[in-house]
Design a protein that fits this description.
single chain, 309 residues, 11-stranded antiparallel β-sheet, 17% helix, globular
Length: 309
Amino acid sequence: MKKGFFVAFCVLLLAFCSSAQQIKRFNPDSIRTIVIDSAINIRSHHLNAQDFIDAVLADTGFYQAFRNMKKYDFIAENRIYTYNKKNKVDGKIYRKIKHSTVNGKHKVEYVAKQDTGNIYKSNGKYQLYTVEMFDFIFTNAYNSDFIKAPALPGSEGKNESYKDKLKTLIFAPGHKVKGIPFISSKTEIFSRDMRDYYYYQFARGKYLDSIPVYRFRVVRKSSEGDNDVVIKELTTIFDTRNFQILGRYVDLKYSNWIFSFDIQMNIELANVKGELLPTKITYQGNWDIPFHKTERASFLIVQKDYKAE
């Protein structure tokens, strides 16, 4: 199997504890940041299911939130764990990074940097493609395709299409992800063909203790065919005051004779002086493809102390 095909799946499946003993992985569930008051009848709020679907499909706020980062100095703390086949931690990466602008140029300063365990190959590259793509996209946020910036050397060509797939999954859930065999159309969960596979659930609550929100959950129905869908759950958090999207959680699972994956990813935003900015990104997952090592990893990214330049 060609490496490019392998990397394409790695990038697609990214979108979403210091002991070496067996541990629970991070639970990237935005519900933990929300205190739910009650289920709601959306008609009483003069809304319907299509209002939420339209907002999810039309939203550009998540993409803009990552672009907004370049206007701010901030601290990023990145924790990455890799796991062996017994689900025990075999590698850890920790980065505390200060992003700032000095004389009009972006500056990255490593406040803390620590690697332990089975992280690198003998040639100095990461053992796992998942970690490699994480490092490219998040550690080098100013040069990633999440914001408009000059491309990194060697990032043109095929890698651009891989990043487009990742952008669709994270920033445009519910849209078709083109170019992935067997599952491309199954990510289009609001299409006429896919809607019958899902329940819609609505609740009202508080986000970050004070922000009134709606929680819109799209959850797969019970089915005899595990592979009828790829997205098992898509949860979106809306600010009730302006319908801005503040949080997104996605649960993906699929298996066939070529590959399998079981992944959860969550992104949370906060309003800083009137602009949305990413504050927490979590990922946990396993995926497997023939002739390659099974990849098991979890990430926790926290971005804080935003200050305007």
